[in-house]
Amino acid sequence: MADERFEVIRRSIIDAPVIMKGEYPYFIHPLSDGVPSQSAELLAAARDLIYENVDWSKVDIILGIEAMGIPLAAALCLKSGKPLVVGRKREYGLPGETSIDQSTGYSKGSIFLNDIKKGDGVFVVDDVVSTGGTLLPILQAIDRIEATVADCWIVFEKGSGMDFVRENGDWPLNSIVRIRMDGDKVTVLE
């Protein structure tokens, strides 16, 4: 019998509306967009499915990626007691700040990492990986800082992005739900 928490997330993604950003199919979901509203049940299901599968003794800091990695990172921070830092789309110019060029299926920009130090065990959490254009440079930056990716969890693994990231490094990479876009329909892969 499937875990009810997984079923809550699976059902919610199957019913998600899809819009086109150019030729890129983009699903709209509470865990990846904050609309429609994110229920406590949905956020708790994602939090708990991740939390139970992480060796928290290896984690020094949680890195949530702006924007929609933030709610899940905050929920995991509260549950685990581990501190949290946010990969931001804004530069602060703080000592040790690391700038990352990122490219998604529909945009390009920068992410800035602060407060990750050499030797830290970093737990990375984000909402979606589609192309790997955000996740790969973040993981590479953690390596350059000489910190360790203790674990990495993504809610929705869409398309071949996680495979692309796996081909370019040896990090622990996990997702709750693997999906495929079939035009304007979301299909959950088993």
| N-end to C-end Cα span | 14 Å
User: Per the principal axes of the C-alpha atoms, what is the gross shape?
Assistant: globular
Report the helical percentage.
Answer: 25-40%
Total of domains: 1
Name a few traits of the molecule.
190 residues; alpha/beta; Rossmann fold; six-stranded mixed sheet; two-stranded antiparallel sheet; 6 helices; 10 strands; 30% helix; globular
Describe this structure in words.
Helix 1 packs across helix 3 (40-51) and helix 3 (40-51) crosses helix 4. The chain has helices at 4-14, 30-33, 40-51, 69-80, 135-145, 161-167; strands spanning 18-21, 24-27, 61-65, 84-87, 98-103, 108-113, 121-129, 148-158, 174-182, 185-189. Helix 6 (161-167) links the parallel strand 8 and strand 9 (174-182). The strands form three sheets. It has a six-stranded mixed beta sheet, sandwiched between helices. Strands 1-2 form a two-stranded antiparallel sheet. The protein has 190 residues and is α/β, with parallel strands linked by helices. The protein has one domain: Rossmann fold, CATH 3.40.50.2020. It is globular and about 45 Å long. The longest helix is centred in the N-terminal third of the chain and has 12 residues, at 40-51.
